[in-house]
Automatic annotation (TrEMBL):
Keywords: NAD
NAD is among the record's keywords: yes
Protein name (Swiss-Prot/TrEMBL): Gfo/Idh/MocA family oxidoreductase
Lineage: Bacteria, Bacillati, Actinomycetota, Actinomycetes, Micrococcales
Keyword Translocase: no
Length: 388
């Protein structure tokens, strides 16, 4: 292999075109696009004119068997990612799947199980927000115990406003059979990943979800979920696609500090001088009175740091592509291993299942039960075949 990975892009839509441009513009120095596949034959002219060094295929299997590529990225509808990943890996081709890794855990677990049989191949997922320097820094702070053990997490992310026309532009969009869900599988997978990547995986979830609440769609456009981490800590996740003003606020409360992130841009980190319980047990009522009246210097109890990074458009996605290529070339650890793709899908499935059953759901739920419920909704739509 040369010092550049030969990449095949499966699906030349918005994402696929963006990745092709990043690479052709030199933002991913260890990667070159050598093949592109798309079911739309008209894309052949686009490839010929824009990426003349890349061969075009209408069938992705033909691309995989062409000998043109070392690796592929799957920028296609969510349901297709697992099988395409398996098809690539089974032919000795490294695979980077777009988020989410799939729609339901059964199909994603099949992909993960196959990937384990070919450990010599690189298998990643496009969680580009893990390459956001702000969230990478916050994970370092939490992992180092700088705010102590987590006691509560909250993320309200409603900056996904979508008008009805957005949903009407494609027959598959916002359907159970075509897309597999709404805001949880389309707009919010990055937050579902970051929430668990930084704060840990919960054990249970109870949710209230509205389907077609403010839009004429079958899937969810409003979600409120409460998770239980199993150690007394809880978390809340709120998301929607009908809030025109939108809010993005992420809080992590620990027993020795707190992190507040606004607009995925600025984080305020508070570090207590002593654990909160110790302050509670040792502070006199006279000191409490002075604190409430603003007569005590708060820096005696905690320090505050503001963290903000410049984030150039394209850096996060191109960084994941570069990291994926580096993993292939020299074994550099992956920012987002493909095995992590199950976590967001599992949580989204559990949130759906809780709302459908009206019960708290363990993250170790019966994936067959979820698939049965999903297929009921696909059948009711009458537009797409059921899944297995």
């Amino acid at each position: 292999m040369t010092n550049k990975v030969r990449l095949g892009i499966i699906g030349l839509g918005t994402q696929g075109s963006m990745y092709a441009k990043f690479i052709s513009d030199g933002l991913v120095p260890n990667m070159v696009v050598t093949a592109i596949a798309d079911t739309d034959p008209a894309k052949a002219d686009v490839v010929r004119e824009t990426y003349p060094d890349a061969n075009f295929y209408e069938d992705y299997i033909a691309l995989l068997e062409s000998g043109d590529v070392d690796a592929v990225v799957t920028t296609v509808p969510h349901f297709l990612h697992p099988q395409m990943g398996i098809d690539a890996l089974s032919r000795g081709i490294h695979a980077l799947v777009e988020k989410p890794a799939g729609v339901y855990t059964k199909q994603v677990n099949e992909l993960l199980a196959f990937a384990e049989t070919v450990p010599e191949l690189s298998f990643g997922i496009m969680f580009n927000q893990r390459n956001n320097p702000l969230y990478r820094r916050l994970k370092e702070i939490v992992d180092a115990g700088e705010i102590g053990d987590i006691r509560r997490t909250n993320w309200i992310i409603t900056t996904w406003w979508r008008p009805q026309g957005y949903y009407d532009q494609s027959e598959w969009r916002a359907t159970w059979g075509g897309e597999g869900g709404g805001v949880l599988v389309n707009q919010a997978p990055h937050q579902l990943d970051l929430w668990q990547w930084i704060c840990g995986v919960p054990e249970k979830v109870f949710s209230k979800v509205a389907y077609g609440f403010r839009r004429d769609i079958a899937v969810e456009d409003e979600v409120t979920a409460v998770v239980d981490y199993g150690n007394g800590a809880t978390g809340v996740f709120v998301t929607a696609t009908h809030d025109l003003a939108g809010t993005d606020r992420f809080e992590i409360l620990g027993d020795s500090g707190k992190i507040v992130v606004e607009n995925s841009k600025t984080a305020t980190v508070t570090r207590l001088k002593k654990p909160e319980r110790e302050l509670s047990e040792t502070m006199s009522m006279q000191e409490v009175g002075k604190l409430f009246m603003g007569q005590l210097d708060p820096t005696e109890f905690y320090s505050t740091e503001t963290i903000e990074f410049e984030s150039v458009w394209g850096d996060q996605h191109s960084g994941v592509l570069e990291n994926f290529a580096a993993n292939i070339l020299d074994g550099t650890p992956l920012l987002a291993p493909g095995s992590d793709g199950i976590k967001g899908v599992r949580l989204a499935n559990a949130i759906h299942l809780s709302s459908w059953t009206g019960k708290e759901v363990s993250l170790d739920f019966d994936e067959s039960e979820y698939l049965v419920e999903l297929n009921k909704r696909i059948t009711d739509e009458g537009k797409f075949p059921v899944r297995n």
